[in-house]
Specification:
binds FE2/S2 (inorganic) cluster; Arc Repressor Mutant, subunit A; 6% strand; Glutaredoxin; mainly alpha; elongated; 13 helices
Length: 352
Protein backbone atom coordinates (compact mmCIF):
# COMPACT_ATOMS: atom_id res chain seq x y z
CA UNK A 1 0.00 0.00 0.00
CA UNK A 2 1.31 3.38 -0.92
CA UNK A 3 1.76 6.13 1.63
CA UNK A 4 -1.41 8.14 1.87
CA UNK A 5 -1.07 11.78 2.80
CA UNK A 6 -3.42 14.72 2.80
CA UNK A 7 -3.36 16.90 -0.28
CA UNK A 8 -0.96 19.81 -0.43
CA UNK A 9 -1.95 22.96 1.42
CA UNK A 10 -2.72 24.87 -1.76
CA UNK A 11 -5.53 22.41 -2.54
CA UNK A 12 -7.08 22.51 0.92
CA UNK A 13 -10.15 24.74 1.31
CA UNK A 14 -10.52 27.11 4.25
CA UNK A 15 -13.38 25.34 5.85
CA UNK A 16 -16.07 22.74 5.50
CA UNK A 17 -19.74 22.47 6.37
CA UNK A 18 -22.32 19.87 5.53
CA UNK A 19 -25.24 20.98 3.42
CA UNK A 20 -28.50 21.34 5.32
CA UNK A 21 -29.74 17.92 4.20
CA UNK A 22 -26.44 16.23 4.87
CA UNK A 23 -26.17 17.87 8.30
CA UNK A 24 -29.58 16.45 9.27
CA UNK A 25 -28.56 13.06 7.92
CA UNK A 26 -25.31 13.21 9.90
CA UNK A 27 -27.16 13.94 13.15
CA UNK A 28 -29.49 11.02 12.55
CA UNK A 29 -26.55 8.76 11.76
CA UNK A 30 -24.76 9.70 14.98
CA UNK A 31 -27.91 8.85 16.95
CA UNK A 32 -27.80 5.30 15.61
CA UNK A 33 -24.93 4.54 17.94
CA UNK A 34 -25.18 4.17 21.73
CA UNK A 35 -24.34 7.09 23.93
CA UNK A 36 -20.58 7.30 24.34
CA UNK A 37 -20.03 5.39 21.08
CA UNK A 38 -20.52 8.30 18.67
CA UNK A 39 -17.01 7.75 17.31
CA UNK A 40 -18.42 4.80 15.41
CA UNK A 41 -20.06 7.25 13.01
CA UNK A 42 -16.75 8.50 11.68
CA UNK A 43 -16.68 6.39 8.51
CA UNK A 44 -20.23 7.13 7.27
CA UNK A 45 -19.77 10.84 8.02
CA UNK A 46 -16.44 11.02 6.19
CA UNK A 47 -17.95 9.19 3.22
CA UNK A 48 -20.87 11.63 3.11
CA UNK A 49 -18.39 14.52 3.21
CA UNK A 50 -16.54 12.97 0.26
CA UNK A 51 -19.77 12.54 -1.69
CA UNK A 52 -20.55 16.20 -1.09
CA UNK A 53 -17.13 17.64 -1.94
CA UNK A 54 -15.72 14.98 -4.23
CA UNK A 55 -12.82 14.29 -1.88
CA UNK A 56 -12.01 14.38 1.83
CA UNK A 57 -10.47 17.68 2.79
CA UNK A 58 -8.56 18.40 5.97
CA UNK A 59 -11.30 20.78 7.02
CA UNK A 60 -13.92 18.06 6.49
CA UNK A 61 -11.96 15.59 8.62
CA UNK A 62 -11.74 18.07 11.46
CA UNK A 63 -15.39 19.04 11.11
CA UNK A 64 -16.49 15.40 11.38
CA UNK A 65 -14.16 14.87 14.35
CA UNK A 66 -15.73 17.84 16.12
CA UNK A 67 -19.23 16.50 15.50
CA UNK A 68 -18.54 13.21 17.23
CA UNK A 69 -16.07 14.45 19.86
CA UNK A 70 -13.16 12.54 18.37
CA UNK A 71 -9.51 13.71 18.50
CA UNK A 72 -8.36 14.99 15.11
CA UNK A 73 -5.54 12.46 14.96
CA UNK A 74 -8.01 9.58 15.26
CA UNK A 75 -10.17 10.91 12.42
CA UNK A 76 -7.03 11.47 10.34
CA UNK A 77 -5.97 7.88 10.96
CA UNK A 78 -9.28 6.62 9.61
CA UNK A 79 -9.27 8.87 6.56
CA UNK A 80 -5.71 7.99 5.60
CA UNK A 81 -6.13 4.25 6.22
CA UNK A 82 -9.03 3.46 3.91
CA UNK A 83 -8.25 3.83 0.23
CA UNK A 84 -11.91 4.50 -0.47
CA UNK A 85 -11.33 8.03 0.84
CA UNK A 86 -9.88 10.35 -1.77
CA UNK A 87 -7.38 12.65 -0.10
CA UNK A 88 -6.80 14.91 -3.12
CA UNK A 89 -9.11 16.53 -5.65
CA UNK A 90 -10.37 14.17 -8.34
CA UNK A 91 -11.91 14.77 -11.74
CA UNK A 92 -15.11 16.73 -11.55
CA UNK A 93 -16.84 14.51 -14.14
CA UNK A 94 -15.25 11.13 -13.60
CA UNK A 95 -12.71 9.45 -11.42
CA UNK A 96 -11.87 6.11 -13.03
CA UNK A 97 -10.75 3.29 -10.78
CA UNK A 98 -9.09 0.57 -12.82
CA UNK A 99 -8.86 -2.85 -11.22
CA UNK A 100 -5.33 -4.16 -11.51
CA UNK A 101 -5.65 -7.39 -9.52
CA UNK A 102 -4.67 -10.72 -11.12
CA UNK A 103 -7.90 -11.74 -12.92
CA UNK A 104 -8.32 -8.29 -14.43
CA UNK A 105 -4.61 -8.05 -15.17
CA UNK A 106 -4.75 -11.37 -17.04
CA UNK A 107 -7.70 -10.09 -19.01
CA UNK A 108 -6.07 -6.83 -20.07
CA UNK A 109 -6.27 -4.26 -17.28
CA UNK A 110 -2.83 -2.97 -18.19
CA UNK A 111 -4.20 -1.94 -21.56
CA UNK A 112 -7.01 -0.09 -19.79
CA UNK A 113 -4.48 1.76 -17.67
CA UNK A 114 -2.59 2.71 -20.80
CA UNK A 115 -5.78 4.30 -22.11
CA UNK A 116 -6.14 6.25 -18.88
CA UNK A 117 -2.55 7.43 -19.09
CA UNK A 118 -3.06 8.52 -22.68
CA UNK A 119 -6.37 10.27 -22.20
CA UNK A 120 -6.14 11.61 -18.64
CA UNK A 121 -2.68 11.82 -17.11
CA UNK A 122 0.46 9.67 -17.16
CA UNK A 123 0.25 9.35 -13.38
CA UNK A 124 -2.65 8.22 -11.29
CA UNK A 125 -4.28 10.68 -8.85
CA UNK A 126 -3.53 13.51 -11.25
CA UNK A 127 -6.29 15.27 -13.12
CA UNK A 128 -6.35 16.09 -16.79
CA UNK A 129 -5.72 19.64 -17.89
CA UNK A 130 -9.33 20.70 -17.61
CA UNK A 131 -9.70 19.02 -14.20
CA UNK A 132 -12.63 16.92 -15.34
CA UNK A 133 -11.00 13.48 -15.24
CA UNK A 134 -8.67 11.51 -13.00
CA UNK A 135 -7.83 7.85 -12.54
CA UNK A 136 -6.17 5.39 -10.18
CA UNK A 137 -5.34 1.70 -9.99
CA UNK A 138 -7.26 -0.21 -7.31
CA UNK A 139 -7.43 -3.75 -5.98
CA UNK A 140 -10.20 -6.21 -6.77
CA UNK A 141 -13.63 -4.62 -6.95
CA UNK A 142 -15.50 -7.91 -6.94
CA UNK A 143 -16.44 -8.26 -10.58
CA UNK A 144 -13.63 -10.61 -11.55
CA UNK A 145 -15.94 -12.86 -13.56
CA UNK A 146 -16.45 -9.96 -15.93
CA UNK A 147 -12.83 -8.85 -16.02
CA UNK A 148 -11.38 -6.44 -16.91
CA UNK A 149 -13.42 -3.71 -15.38
CA UNK A 150 -13.39 -0.18 -14.01
CA UNK A 151 -15.50 1.65 -11.48
CA UNK A 152 -16.67 5.22 -11.96
CA UNK A 153 -18.23 6.64 -8.82
CA UNK A 154 -20.55 3.82 -7.72
CA UNK A 155 -21.04 2.03 -11.02
CA UNK A 156 -18.95 -0.74 -12.57
CA UNK A 157 -18.22 -1.11 -16.30
CA UNK A 158 -17.17 -4.62 -17.15
CA UNK A 159 -15.89 -6.78 -20.02
CA UNK A 160 -13.99 -3.79 -21.26
CA UNK A 161 -11.73 -3.42 -24.23
CA UNK A 162 -9.36 -0.47 -24.55
CA UNK A 163 -11.53 0.92 -27.32
CA UNK A 164 -14.71 0.71 -25.27
CA UNK A 165 -13.05 2.33 -22.25
CA UNK A 166 -11.83 5.18 -24.44
CA UNK A 167 -15.41 5.74 -25.63
CA UNK A 168 -16.71 5.74 -22.05
CA UNK A 169 -14.06 8.22 -20.92
CA UNK A 170 -14.96 10.53 -23.78
CA UNK A 171 -18.66 10.37 -22.92
CA UNK A 172 -18.01 11.21 -19.27
CA UNK A 173 -15.68 14.02 -20.26
CA UNK A 174 -18.44 15.42 -22.44
CA UNK A 175 -20.89 15.33 -19.53
CA UNK A 176 -22.81 12.38 -21.02
CA UNK A 177 -21.79 9.73 -18.54
CA UNK A 178 -25.38 8.87 -17.76
CA UNK A 179 -25.85 7.62 -21.30
CA UNK A 180 -23.49 4.72 -20.62
CA UNK A 181 -25.19 1.65 -19.23
CA UNK A 182 -23.18 0.12 -16.38
CA UNK A 183 -22.37 -3.60 -16.36
CA UNK A 184 -20.95 -5.81 -19.13
CA UNK A 185 -19.98 -3.85 -22.20
CA UNK A 186 -19.82 -6.82 -24.59
CA UNK A 187 -23.52 -7.57 -24.73
CA UNK A 188 -23.67 -10.56 -22.45
CA UNK A 189 -26.18 -10.69 -19.65
CA UNK A 190 -24.54 -10.44 -16.26
CA UNK A 191 -21.93 -13.23 -16.16
CA UNK A 192 -23.48 -15.60 -18.70
CA UNK A 193 -20.90 -17.42 -20.86
CA UNK A 194 -19.10 -14.81 -22.95
CA UNK A 195 -18.84 -17.18 -25.91
CA UNK A 196 -22.48 -18.18 -25.78
CA UNK A 197 -24.20 -21.24 -24.39
CA UNK A 198 -22.31 -24.53 -24.52
CA UNK A 199 -25.28 -26.67 -23.48
CA UNK A 200 -28.97 -26.52 -24.40
CA UNK A 201 -27.92 -24.60 -27.45
CA UNK A 202 -30.63 -26.06 -29.70
CA UNK A 203 -33.81 -24.58 -28.43
CA UNK A 204 -35.95 -26.61 -30.82
CA UNK A 205 -34.85 -29.81 -29.06
CA UNK A 206 -36.03 -28.43 -25.75
CA UNK A 207 -39.29 -27.26 -27.24
CA UNK A 208 -39.86 -30.56 -29.03
CA UNK A 209 -39.30 -32.53 -25.83
CA UNK A 210 -41.78 -30.28 -24.05
CA UNK A 211 -44.30 -30.71 -26.85
CA UNK A 212 -43.92 -34.46 -26.82
CA UNK A 213 -44.33 -34.62 -23.07
CA UNK A 214 -47.49 -32.56 -23.24
CA UNK A 215 -48.80 -34.80 -26.00
CA UNK A 216 -48.12 -37.94 -23.96
CA UNK A 217 -50.02 -36.69 -20.92
CA UNK A 218 -53.62 -37.18 -22.19
CA UNK A 219 -52.81 -40.65 -23.56
CA UNK A 220 -51.32 -41.72 -20.24
CA UNK A 221 -54.33 -40.38 -18.36
CA UNK A 222 -56.73 -42.32 -20.62
CA UNK A 223 -54.76 -45.52 -20.12
CA UNK A 224 -54.84 -45.19 -16.34
CA UNK A 225 -58.57 -44.48 -16.39
CA UNK A 226 -59.22 -47.69 -18.31
CA UNK A 227 -57.12 -49.84 -15.99
CA UNK A 228 -58.98 -52.23 -13.69
CA UNK A 229 -56.56 -52.61 -10.82
CA UNK A 230 -57.95 -53.97 -7.58
CA UNK A 231 -57.80 -51.57 -4.65
CA UNK A 232 -54.67 -51.97 -2.60
CA UNK A 233 -54.78 -54.04 0.57
CA UNK A 234 -51.56 -52.63 1.93
CA UNK A 235 -53.16 -50.65 4.75
CA UNK A 236 -55.53 -53.39 5.81
CA UNK A 237 -54.70 -55.52 8.90
CA UNK A 238 -53.51 -59.02 8.02
CA UNK A 239 -54.71 -61.35 10.76
CA UNK A 240 -56.76 -64.44 11.08
CA UNK A 241 -57.48 -63.86 14.75
CA UNK A 242 -61.16 -64.50 15.52
CA UNK A 243 -61.29 -61.27 17.49
CA UNK A 244 -60.64 -59.31 14.33
CA UNK A 245 -63.02 -61.28 12.18
CA UNK A 246 -64.94 -58.56 10.35
CA UNK A 247 -68.08 -60.68 10.66
CA UNK A 248 -68.05 -60.18 14.42
CA UNK A 249 -70.44 -57.53 15.60
CA UNK A 250 -69.52 -55.44 18.56
CA UNK A 251 -71.01 -55.26 21.09
CA UNK A 252 -71.94 -58.92 20.90
CA UNK A 253 -75.67 -59.57 20.69
CA UNK A 254 -75.17 -62.72 22.82
CA UNK A 255 -75.49 -62.01 26.51
CA UNK A 256 -73.22 -63.86 28.93
CA UNK A 257 -74.78 -66.28 31.46
CA UNK A 258 -73.99 -64.79 34.93
CA UNK A 259 -74.21 -68.19 36.66
CA UNK A 260 -71.75 -69.78 34.24
CA UNK A 261 -69.34 -66.81 34.54
CA UNK A 262 -69.40 -67.09 38.34
CA UNK A 263 -68.73 -70.80 38.18
CA UNK A 264 -65.74 -70.39 35.90
CA UNK A 265 -64.24 -67.52 37.87
CA UNK A 266 -61.53 -68.15 40.46
CA UNK A 267 -62.83 -67.34 43.89
CA UNK A 268 -60.71 -65.13 46.11
CA UNK A 269 -59.67 -66.75 49.41
CA UNK A 270 -61.56 -65.29 52.34
CA UNK A 271 -60.93 -65.25 56.10
CA UNK A 272 -57.40 -66.68 55.99
CA UNK A 273 -54.56 -64.30 55.26
CA UNK A 274 -51.97 -67.07 55.25
CA UNK A 275 -54.01 -69.02 52.73
CA UNK A 276 -54.46 -65.93 50.62
CA UNK A 277 -50.70 -65.37 50.48
CA UNK A 278 -49.81 -68.98 49.90
CA UNK A 279 -49.35 -70.07 46.38
CA UNK A 280 -49.29 -73.28 44.55
CA UNK A 281 -45.93 -74.94 45.37
CA UNK A 282 -44.87 -74.99 41.74
CA UNK A 283 -45.66 -71.31 41.35
CA UNK A 284 -43.94 -70.48 44.62
CA UNK A 285 -40.80 -72.20 43.39
CA UNK A 286 -40.76 -70.13 40.26
CA UNK A 287 -41.26 -66.97 42.30
CA UNK A 288 -38.27 -67.79 44.47
CA UNK A 289 -36.15 -68.46 41.43
CA UNK A 290 -37.07 -65.04 40.15
CA UNK A 291 -36.22 -63.41 43.46
CA UNK A 292 -32.77 -64.97 43.26
CA UNK A 293 -32.38 -63.46 39.84
CA UNK A 294 -32.85 -59.99 41.34
CA UNK A 295 -36.28 -59.48 39.85
CA UNK A 296 -39.22 -58.83 42.06
CA UNK A 297 -42.43 -60.37 40.97
CA UNK A 298 -45.83 -60.24 42.53
CA UNK A 299 -46.84 -63.19 44.66
CA UNK A 300 -49.94 -63.71 42.61
CA UNK A 301 -48.00 -64.52 39.45
CA UNK A 302 -49.19 -67.75 37.97
CA UNK A 303 -46.86 -68.32 35.06
CA UNK A 304 -45.73 -71.90 34.61
CA UNK A 305 -42.15 -70.73 34.30
CA UNK A 306 -40.32 -67.42 34.22
CA UNK A 307 -38.85 -66.37 30.87
CA UNK A 308 -35.31 -66.75 32.18
CA UNK A 309 -36.03 -70.25 33.38
CA UNK A 310 -37.45 -71.17 30.03
CA UNK A 311 -34.29 -69.99 28.37
CA UNK A 312 -32.22 -71.96 30.87
CA UNK A 313 -30.26 -68.88 31.91
CA UNK A 314 -31.30 -67.60 35.34
CA UNK A 315 -29.62 -64.27 35.79
CA UNK A 316 -28.60 -62.95 39.20
CA UNK A 317 -27.63 -59.40 40.20
CA UNK A 318 -25.09 -57.99 37.84
CA UNK A 319 -26.20 -60.35 35.09
CA UNK A 320 -24.31 -63.40 36.54
CA UNK A 321 -25.59 -66.69 37.81
CA UNK A 322 -25.36 -66.93 41.54
CA UNK A 323 -23.22 -69.59 43.12
CA UNK A 324 -25.13 -72.80 43.75
CA UNK A 325 -28.03 -71.67 41.66
CA UNK A 326 -29.34 -74.22 39.25
CA UNK A 327 -31.65 -74.11 36.33
CA UNK A 328 -34.96 -75.81 36.13
CA UNK A 329 -34.88 -78.54 33.51
CA UNK A 330 -36.24 -77.53 30.17
CA UNK A 331 -39.64 -78.79 29.37
CA UNK A 332 -40.47 -79.56 33.00
CA UNK A 333 -44.07 -78.43 33.27
CA UNK A 334 -43.81 -78.02 37.04
CA UNK A 335 -40.25 -76.97 37.71
CA UNK A 336 -39.20 -76.82 41.32
CA UNK A 337 -36.74 -74.27 42.49
CA UNK A 338 -33.59 -75.54 44.24
CA UNK A 339 -34.60 -73.98 47.52
CA UNK A 340 -37.92 -75.74 47.41
CA UNK A 341 -36.17 -79.08 46.90
CA UNK A 342 -33.67 -78.32 49.66
CA UNK A 343 -36.43 -77.36 52.10
CA UNK A 344 -38.27 -80.60 51.33
CA UNK A 345 -35.07 -82.55 51.90
CA UNK A 346 -34.52 -80.74 55.23
CA UNK A 347 -38.06 -81.53 56.24
CA UNK A 348 -37.51 -85.18 55.42
CA UNK A 349 -34.28 -85.38 57.44
CA UNK A 350 -35.94 -83.58 60.37
CA UNK A 351 -38.73 -86.09 60.37
CA UNK A 352 -36.21 -88.90 60.64
S1 LIG B 1 -9.76 -8.84 -10.07
FE1 LIG B 1 -10.68 -7.19 -11.02
S2 LIG B 1 -12.64 -7.17 -10.17
FE2 LIG B 1 -11.67 -8.77 -9.15
Amino acid sequence: MSVRRLAEVEFQPEGFAFSQANAAWAQQTIKKYPEGREHSAVIPLLMRAQEQEGWVTKAAIEHVADMIGMPYIRALEVATFYTQFQLAPIGTRAHIQVCGTTPCMLRGSEELMRVCKDKIHPQQFHRNESGTLSWEEVECLGACVNAPMVMIFKDTYEDLTPERLAEIIDLFDAGQGESVTPGPQNGRIYSAPASGFTTLTDETVVLKETRDREARKPAAATASDAATVAPTQSAKPKTDAPETDPRLKSPSPVKADPAREAAESVKAPTGNVAAADRQDPAVEGNAETRQHSGKKRGGGETEAAAPETLQGEPIGPGGKRRKGETVAPEGDPTPEAPKTRRRKADDASGAE
